[in-house]
Amino acid sequence: MIRMTVLGILCWVHAAAAGTHSLHFFGVATSEGTGFPKYVAVEMMDDVQITYFNSTMEKPILRTDWINETKGREFLETLTPYILYSHKRIPRILRNTVQHFNHTGVHTYQQVGGCELDDDGTRRAHLSHSYDGKDFISLDLKTMTWTAAVPQAVFYKHKREADRTWQQFSLVYHTRVCFQLLEWYLHCEMETLQRKVPAVTLIQRKARESEGTDVICHVTGFYPREVEVNWIRDDEALLEEGVWSGEVLPNEDRTYQLRKTLTVSLEDQKKHSYSCQVDHASLDEKMDVKWVPEAALNMGFVAAGVLAALGLIIAVIIGALIWKKRASAKEQSDASSTSSNSTNNDRCDSIAEKLMTQTE
Questions:
Q1: What is the CATH number of the domain that holds 219?
Q2: CA angle centred on 228, ends 224 and 234, rounded to 5°
Q3: Tens-place pLDDT, residues 88-111
Q4: Could you tell me how far CA 72 lies from the centroid of its own chain?
Q5: Contact criterion met (CB below 8 Å) for 175 and 125
Q6: What is the overall mean pLDDT for the chain?
Q7: How many domains does the chain have?
Q8: CA dihedral 237, 243, 244, 246 (to 10 degrees)
Q9: Helix (H/G/I), strand (E/B), else coil: 185
Q10: Which is higher by pLDDT, 36 or 66?
């Protein structure tokens, strides 16, 4: 029997962030005698690690400051029983699996699961296990039946389905608690989830494998994650050939970045115009940034140095003016901020009476 209090300040503020948000966990058990902790687990909110735990610790810790101390403690208290329960079970499953196959040496058993929530309310959840990095068994949360990825895992499929405690534990977390934590994060922390407009920079360099030029369209600072970046020729033709795209990567401030590189021959530079086009939820219309070829790359470096020097001088002057202005307005802004924060906290705290207690 697992008795669990779901986050006491689950807020039901009607606001939504565009895109898909997720809460995923990753746990891995390793054979003893390797020098590594026998179990390590992390939780990821979208692309940001939020908790860390290993078997040498008494309890998990938060690895982010995306929520304040009080809310963070309640959030962690909700997750902790599930993390510790997996710590108890997964290393034991590893030992049993190694013995069942009569294996020797170093082996690992991984558990990956979590939930995803779309801005239209669509929900998805998943849970799967791997042995030595290969798919082993996965759980269908609708039917609560396990699927064996390899014939050797059929035995464990039946074993998991017969384990009612494990089944109930998995059902409660993946169909209820995971989504409640995710919704709490979205609804109570919207200040950090506001749409953010991307910044676009074009970087030119000599192509490594041809006589042409690589032009990198660096798009960064945007939120939510979903973004479309394309190279356009002559304001109409969408280019695919000669274009290489990187992955969408997280920044430290919970925004994202993406690079898309176009290789242009010297001949085509004279015949056509090129622009990087960005489409994002924060934009009213698509953003087009035209590429102006530099006469010579070394001139670009000289220009960059001059601009950097001028920028430093201007920054010092502007910084002094801003400091002076902020100093004179500090009292007014502090009073306004205190009033606003008090209102927001009261709104979430007033709903604390809706504390939901689950007994499973």
A1: 2.60.40.10
A2: 145
A3: 999 999 999 999 999 999 999 999
A4: 17
A5: yes
A6: 79
A7: 2
A8: -30
A9: helix
A10: 36
Q: What's CA 171's distance to the chain center, in Å?
A: 24
Token reading at 238: 């969408």
3-class secondary structure, 105: coil
Bridge partner list, 4:
358
Dist. CA 6–CA 184, nearest whole Å: 10
End-to-end CA distance of the chain: 6
Q: Whole-angstrom Cα distance, residue 58 to residue 150?
A: 35
Query: What does the alpha-carbon distance between residue 328 and residue 14 come to, in Å, rounded to a whole number?
Result: 37
More confident residue, 11 or 270: 270
Inform me whether the pLDDT recorded for 147 exceeds 60.
yes
Residue 185's closest CA among 309, 297, 28, 50? 50
Q: Does an H or E element contain 61, and which?
A: strand 61-62
Radius of gyration (Cα) for the chain, nearest Å? Answer: 26
pTM of the model: 0.61
| Residue 172: pLDDT over 90 | yes
Mean pLDDT to the nearest integer, 211-239:
93
The answer to whether 174 and 113 have CB atoms below 8 angstroms apart is yes
Residues 176 and 44 in one domain: yes
Kind and range of the H or E run holding 42:
strand 39-45
Phi, psi of 196 (to 5 degrees): -125, 130
Lowest-confidence pick of 88-102, 124-138, 182-196, 342-356: 342-356
Same domain, 208 and 187: no
Neighbouring C-beta atoms of residue 250, cutoff 10 Å: 14
Based on the fold, state whether residues 174 and 97 are members of the same structural domain.
yes
d(CA 305, CA 300): 9
pLDDT, tens digit, 9 for 90 and up, residues 326-340: 555 444 444 444 444
Chain-centre distance for alpha carbon 336: 32
List the one residue out of 283, 251, 246, 279 whose CA is nearest residue 262.
246
Q: 117 lies in which domain range?
A: 3-193
- Residues 200, 290: Cα–Cα separation, whole Å: 11
